[in-house]
Amino acid sequence: MALAVEKTRKSGLSLHGLGVVCGLSAGVWLGAAEAPTKLVNAGFSPFAISLCMVAGVFTARWTFPTLLKGTGYVFEDLAERKHLIVWALLAGALWAVANTLTVFAIRDVGLAVAFPMWNANSLIGLFWGRVLFRELEGASGRNIAKVVLGSIAIVIAAVLLGFSTIHGGAIGSHAVRGIVAALGASLMWGTMYVPYRKAYLSGMNPLSFVTVFTVGELGTVLALTLALDGGVHSSAFQLLRVPGVLFWLFLGGFVWVIGDLFQQFAAKYLGIGRGIPLSNTNQLWGLAWGALVFGELAKADRQHRWMVIGGSLIMILGALAISTAVASAKEGSSTNEAVLRECRRYGLDYQRTMMAQAGDEFSGRDERRRWWDYVIVLTATAVFVALGVRSVVPPLALDLRWVAILSAVLITSLAVGGWSLWRRTRFN
């Protein structure tokens, strides 16, 4: 405890504050990550888009843990918590299914509308956090009211957006199918946060968790493509031979990884009931990319625009209400009991686990960089460079001015979030 107080004094940032910074940074990056999936409008299969994007995710996710901590650290962490490997694989599989559903949703209802709908995953995450991990147990009446009212606001917003999609002619002729896909993605992603929380209650570093996570997601999306998209004749394998387009999907995966890493740290330091709604401000950034860069609402009537904007704002306010419910001492005690339960179940050291959960990880971990670490980083970089030099601008109408503005926001959020994590916890 004394060490945590000292770190807070030196960095000027509490763990709650760090979680908030990570959640907001996650929102900025996750909001931008889906923009490349607009390529589905150019005639590519949603499975092809998802598979190639996940290939980019796989490449980037092995790079960041190796760059920040080294493979020695990652495998030592995994070896101490072998029981979490299967949970990480399961989380990756759920992510892959959800990501594929989002591509269908974007195709049928558009990015600006699909984003707020699948971000109802915060409700699912809140439910699992309360039932499985005792989040909100011992919370004050004010905090409980914030969570309940925020949840109601999110539901109202989802209904409003669904209604506007069905009755708005600016969106397309397969609105119901798009709504089902977006809500299905919400269910998958909301359930995916269960392994997240389980991992961090056990003291695992998010960088170690995502290393295994990415194996589950790549394997699942490849299986989905082979089973449901024509097997080896899928357009995904044709798209792999089009590097001019492939770069943008890999780039989308790269952007997603940064956002997801911030989201992982937000879930670690705030819990899934608070961290996930905060990261779901990505709907605002998804709306910005969809409306400002791709002009999705350019032909919408005034009523439709107000319904989309109003629904988005209501959902954001609901998520913020949940995330500002700062945990009380009693609720912290409930969390500590959940940690103790995990330690007893899997034979973990309670004190070391508590330190790791608070970002005050014990010393002695092997963080040396070996020659193969540099090979991994250089190989991943070479893949992106090789695809980038052969890339072509997608056949879509883009507002380059807004691309520049939103890209500047991305870089700023990365700098602030990365510096905060390093200064407060050294990425622990």
Tally of extended strands? 0
Given helix and strand content, the structural type is: mainly alpha
| Biggest beta sheet attributes | none
Tell me roughly what share of residues is in helical segments: over 70%
Note the total helix count.
19
What is the overall shape? Answer: globular
Q: What sequence of helices (H) and strands (E) makes up the elements? A: HHHHHHHHHHHHHHHHHHH
Report the mean per-residue pLDDT as an integer.
Answer: 81
User: Roughly what fraction of the amino acids lie in strands?
Assistant: under 5%
Distance between the termini: 16 Å
Radius of gyration (Å):
21 Å
List low-pLDDT spans: 1-6
Assembly category:
single chain
Structure description:
The chain is mainly alpha-helical and 428 residues long. The protein is 78% helix and 0% strand. It contains 19 helices and no strands. It has helices spanning 2-11, 15-33, 46-68, 71-80, 83-109, 111-118, 121-133, 141-167, 175-201, 206-228, 235-239, 243-270, 272-279, 282-293, 302-323, 329-346, 350-357, 371-389, 400-425. It is globular. It starts with a helix and ends with a helix. Residues 1-6 have low confidence and may be disordered.
